[in-house]
Amino acid sequence: xxxxxxxxPFASLIASGEKTIETRRWPTSYRGDLLIVSTLRPYRPNxxxxxxxxxxxxxxxDCVPSTFDHASAACCSIYEGAWSWLLEDVRPIEPFPxxxxxxxxxxxxPEGVLCESL
Length: 118
Prior knowledge:
Elements: E1 2-6, H1 10-15, E2 21-24, E3 32-38, E4 53-65, H2 71-74, E5 83-97, E6 104-106
Parallel strand pairs: 1-3
Antiparallel strand pairs: 1-6, 2-5, 3-4, 4-5
């Protein structure tokens, strides 16, 4: 499955459905299911948030140049050159450890982790 590493607390905000836009400095042509993985190093220390684990699956349905209107859904300030990755359909999973990488990468998902709807 395609995966994307996201720093905490943003990975948990995506998993909870509060963050529906992920911003990156690069666009992607990929559309489809995306496993959200929390990085080992958080953006801001926040005890209790999982690190180095797959947290959920989302549908990446579009990627567009960021606008200031995206800031609320992205849970961050919009910066010059940012791309907005538009996310929907958050699906919980049984968390499992994942070694993260940069960009989009492949993860072998253990049997029984994904919800039946996937």
